[in-house]
Structures are given as structure tokens and as C-alpha cells.
Amino acid sequence: MSKRPRAPKKAGGLSPMRRLMIMLLSAAATLAVAGMLVAVWVAWSFQGPGPTAKSGDMTTVMLRHGSSLPEIASTLSHEGVIRSAPIFVAAAQVTGAARRLKAGEYEIASRASMASILADIRDGKIVRHQITIPEGRTSEMVVEALAAKSDLTGVAAAPPEGSILPETYQYERGEDRSAVLRRMMDARDQLVASLWSKRQPGLPFSTPEEAITLASIVEKETGQASERPRVAAVFINRLRQGMRLQSDPTIIYGITQGRPLGRGIRASELAAETPYNTYAINGLPPTPIANPGRAAIAAVLDPPKTTELYFVADGTGGHVFASTLAEHNANVAKWRAIERTRGSAPAVAAPEPGLAGGAPVDAPAVTVEP
Questions:
Q1: Looking at residue 203, what is its pLDDT?
Q2: Which of 284, 317, 304, 137 is nearest to 228 (CA)?
Q3: Looking at the domain assignment, is residue 264 inside a domain?
Q4: Fewest beta carbons less than 10 Å away: which of 53, 94, 97, 220?
Q5: How many domains does the chain have?
Q6: Domain for residue 11, yes or no?
Q7: Using an 8 Å Cβ cutoff, are 91 and 116 in contact?
Q8: Domain, as residue range, for 143
């Protein structure tokens, strides 16, 4: 019996197995190319330039305390500073930054890369606001300045007079006012502790609190930093000799608690026996009359050696000093002449605090109101 002849193979034909292998290889190659493209896109999304800011050159983003990683990514995406929240989440997890992200206010530059944004949030490069407290402000005025900052929260009560160090302080948006105030008080305590330990021996006061009280008077008597040591020396010389300080700002504090008086000191106020009237009391008033700055505190704790006991305005914004009452009276006469040439006849005991002319003397430097 003869065998049936086999059908001849078609030229170029592939077996099913070979076709399957080719299909698998083709799919793998396609997937590899797609994977490479995705990897390139992810890398570009992470390292490349980010979106353009919606307005201006910066975008402000607030990340609330307690935010989860997905919430942070969603916030950044919603604000238009990153292109993909999932990529941000993955990058934070892969790099280990996810456990170190910090809440706060961030300013993100237009076109900033996702990598730089993640690094800034990981490093806590939040926006720092600042408040400047000028020397010579009362504690109540400092609390009012804090209350005027709408980017702070909470309520702060006025601390004791003289317990704040006037400087510039940084804070975060949303920080509690009492926390900022506490930093101001801590800064004063640290400064006083440092300067007190190096104070000049033989000073006519025995406690840091008394030093701050005298420094506050020095602060209010002159607005010129270069004069503070000399003014401090005058008051210390008077204390050593048992002379009254006769400082006009102390009278004003007793009347207005440090607010501008808006007029001259009246004769009745000059003669009134109040705890703050250093024309009527011996020694220092019971508390500081303001918050003195670093220079005034340093001047009181290390004053220059002088014999001067008096000073009065010199007409140029500063003061002229004297060691004797005769010299001082001559200086007062010159100041009165300057006032007359300016058309301001003497009608008040002294100018407002912060202006030149408040002088410790044995008698009022100018005529007082009746």
C-alpha cells in the first residue's frame, strides 16, 4: 500500500511556536520602549521645570500642620506648582523625604522643579515674616504691634514693663502671638544675664531689674546711640551723689504710661509726688518706663568714667553736658535762645520723649505751664 505524499511546505512559513515567540518579543520590546518613555517622562516631571506661576514670579502655598503626604501633594497640584501628585508622592516615598516634610508657608518660584520643591519642604524652608520692635516702646505698645499683625494668631497679654528686648524677630504665618512675645522676653533675659555677669563694679544699684529701670530712662532721654553711655554716666553719677534723677520721661510715664503727652508738662505735674516723678522722689522709680534696647542696657552696666551731672538739648538733635550747675545753667540759656530764634517761646517744662531736650536738672530747664 503506497503512502500519501506530504504536502510541500510553503516557502517562508512559520510554525505557530515561532509566531508566538515573535509576538512575545515584539510585545516585550513595545513594553520596554513604553517603560523607557514613562521613565523619561517621570524623570522629566521630577527634575525638569515645573508649571508657570499663575500670577507673578512666585506662588504662595500653605501646608497645614498634620497634613498627610497625599494631602500635601494634592495641595501642591491644586496650587499649580507641580504637574503630578502621584509622582510627588512616589518621589517622597522613594527618597525618604516623606517622613520629614514640614508644614508651613512656602513661596515657590515659577517653573521650580518638583525635586527642588520636595527638597524645600523636606528642609522646612518656610516663609519667615518679621516684626521690628523699636527701642523705648512700652510693653503695651509691643502687644498692640503684635495684635496688628494679621498673619499671627491668638491673644498676648502685656508683660511687665522692661521685660522685652527691642529687636527684629522672625515668625511663621499662623504662629501664636504669645509665642513670639515669649521669644522677645527670653532674648532680654539672655542679654541681661550675659551683661550682668560682666558689669562694672561699684554701680549704684544691686539687681538686674534696677539696671533695666535705669536703662529705660536712658533710652527715653536720648535717641542718639552715641550719647547713651554719656547719659547713663550722668544718671549714675547723680545716684552716687544722692541727687534726684529729674528725668522728664519719668513724669510722662506716670501720667500716660508712656504714651505721648501731646503737650508740655504742667507745674502741678512736675511737683506732684508720684512714684514715677523723679523730680519728687529719690532714686529710681518702681518699674522701668519702657523697654530699653541693647545699647542702653550695656551703657548702664558699663558706663564711662565722667564727672558730668547735667545735660540739655544743644539744638542739633543732641545734648550738651556739664559737670557743674553753673555750666548747665549757661547751656540752658543757650537752649532757650535757640528756642526763641525758632519762634517757640518756652512754655513747657520739656519736649516729648524722644525729642532732644529732656534734661535732669536741679530746677526745670524751661518755664512750665501754670
A1: 97
A2: 304
A3: yes
A4: 94
A5: 3
A6: no
A7: no
A8: 129-193
Q: Is 318 in contact with 225 (CB distance < 8 Å)?
A: no
Residue 33 predicted with pLDDT over 90 = no
Lowest mean pLDDT among 142-151, 298-307, 341-350, 361-370: 361-370
Query: Does residue 74 register a pLDDT over 60?
Result: yes
| CB-based contact 89:113 (threshold 8 Å) | no
Q: pLDDT tens digits, residue range 242-276?
A: 999 999 999 999 999 999 888 888 999 998 988 99
133, 138, 144, 147: CA torsion to nearest 10: 60
pLDDT of residue 273: 87
Residue 8 lies inside a defined structural domain of this protein: no
Judge if 138 and 179 occupy the same domain: yes
| CA gap 122, 117 in Å, rounded | 9
Spatial distance between the Cα atoms of 230 and 227, rounded to a whole number of angstroms: 5
Task: Name the CA radius of gyration of the chain, rounded.
Answer: 37
Please name the residues in contact with 212: beta carbons below 8 A apart, sequence gap of 6 or more.
162, 192, 288, 292, 297
User: Would you say how long the chain is, in residues?
Assistant: 370
* Cell 504637574, residue located: 83
pTM of the model: 0.78
Contacts of 141 (CB under 8 A, 6+ apart): 258
